[in-house]
Amino acid sequence: MTGKQRKRLINAGQITLILIAIVIMLAPILWIFMAAFKNHIDVFQLKLFFKPTLENFGTVFEAPYYLGHKLMNSTIVALVTVLFAIPIATMAAYSFSRFQLRGETLMLVIILATQFVPAVVIILPFFVMFRDIGLLDTRLGLILVNLAIVMPFAIWMIKGFIDGIPMDTEEAAMVDGSSRMQVIRNIVLPMAAPGLLTAGIFCFIIAWNEFLFALILTNKDSVTLPIGLALFKAEEGDLWNLLSAAGIIIMMPMFVLALIIRKYFVQGMTMGAVR
To answer: DSSP for 180-219?
Structure first.
């Protein structure tokens, strides 16, 4: 076998593996998409051709499911989490990146270590604390929990982006008379914008998909979409058609968000990887 033939064979093998991976990833999504437009009987049959219906998407918003209320809860919790997390994480990341802080390494290690603590270990203290201060089954309680989850991740991620911004740019601006806040507003934030957007996207996804804390800390008023999926059951078993319709509703914001910011997403990821 010649070198050219060997190279073609390797390329063909790589393409085959990529196609297999794509099929494995997309097959469940395709099944959910098809099931969302089927009735309860057709969903248990492997039919590629069926009479589609939009009834499932209307049913999930009606009693007893009330998916609209859960959609509003998830949206408010995820957006408010991002609105608070990114500014706070940016200030903390800038401080770690630009100032020599006493105990800086220890603080960064502690912040990182919180990401390795299993959620089941800290869920009980959160439950007891929120029960005592009246935050059980509230959006505020979920927002505080999500902030505790995403803040360490956001700080480390944004710090990597700010580290990639040359110090000379800031020093030149300060020599010209700019204050520290002006330098941050006019230089650091615009240059780090793709990174901030990337961190915000990840924080939104984490808060949007959070399940365990929402399961334990909510009961009725503040139930979110992931918890709402457990309601689609009946005497005949799981209502896969309704479950799939609700799943499509949960996934749609992620797809739309990815399409809108894909250019900035890639730019932000590559920016954080370069020193």
So the answer is: HHHHIIIIIHHHHHHHHHHHHHHHHHHHHH--HHHHHH-S
- Digit-coded pLDDT (tens) for 155-192: 988 998 888 888 888 888 888 888 888 888 888 888 88
Peptide bond before residue 166 is cis, with ω within 30 degrees of 0: no
pTM of the model: 0.85
DSSP alpha helix (H) spans, the chain: 3-35, 55-59, 67-98, 104-113, 119-133, 139-163, 167-175, 180-183, 189-209, 212-217, 225-228, 240-273
Q: What's the rounded Cα separation, in Å, for the pair 240 and 136?
A: 30
Q: Measured between alpha carbons, how far is 215 from 197 in angstroms, rounded to an integer?
A: 28
Nearest alpha-carbon partner for 94 in 162, 196, 180 = 162
Of 79, 81, 97, the closest CA to residue 183 belongs to 97
